[in-house]
Amino acid sequence: PVTLAHAVLREFPEFRAPLVTDNAPADVAENLHRGGTGCLGLASADLDGDGVLDQVLALTPLAGLQPLAVIALARAGQWVFRVIDSEVGMRVRLFVDVVPPGRYDRSESLGPPRGAGEPRQVTCPLSGAIVGAVRATGIVYCLVRGNWRRVVVVG
Q: Alpha carbon of 103 to those of 23, 56, 74, 86, 130: distances in Å?
C-alpha cells in the first residue's frame, strides 16, 4: 500500500522498500516456480487478529550491506513497526514470508538452545512471520498474548 511506502520512508530513511531484484535471480525463479510472487521481501497476513492485513518487509539499505526485517501492523490507518532479527547480513540472501497458525519447533540440527530464554517451540494462535536466509535459516515470529515470540525453525 502507498501508505506503507510513505511510512517506511519516514520511519527508516536509511532503507528502501523491497524489489524483486533484491534477491538472486535463481531464488526469485524458485519462488515463482513454487507459486510465489517472486518478491522475497514482502509478505502479507493478519498477524495480530484484527481482521486487517499486516505486512512483513525485508528492507534494503541505501548504503552498506546490512538489511533490516520489520513487521508492519496496520492500526487505525497507521503503521506500527516492529524490527525483527533475521540473522542475515546481506539483502540478496534475506527473505520474509508468512506461516499459518500452528506449532513451530526449534530445528534439532541447530543443537541445544543458546540460552535459557530461547524456546524449543512456539505455538502461533494466528498467522506468523518467518524471516531468514534463503535455503539456510528461518526464524518464526508470532504474536502470543500481546508479546512477540520467536523460534529458529530451519538450520
A: 29, 20, 25, 20, 13
Provide the 3-class DSSP secondary structure of residue 15.
strand
Nearest Cα to 133, choosing from 85, 63, 82?
Answer: 85
User: pTM of the prediction?
Assistant: 0.90
Closest among 77, 78, 68, 74 to 16, alpha carbons compared: 68
Q: SS in 3 state form for 42-94?
A: EEEECCCCCCCCEEEEEEEECCCCCCEEEEEEEECCEEEEEEECCCCCCHHHE
What is the structure's pLDDT at 113? 60
| The pLDDT of residue 77 | 84
Low-confidence ranges of the chain (pLDDT < 70): 109-117, 155
Q: How far apart are CA 118 and CA 136, in angstroms?
A: 19
> What pLDDT does residue 107 have?
78
| Neighbour count for residue 77 (Cβ, 10 Å) | 6
What's the Cα-to-Cα distance from 67 to each of 32, 40, 126, rounded to whole Å? 22, 13, 26
3-state secondary structure of 13: coil
Cell numbers for 56: 512483513
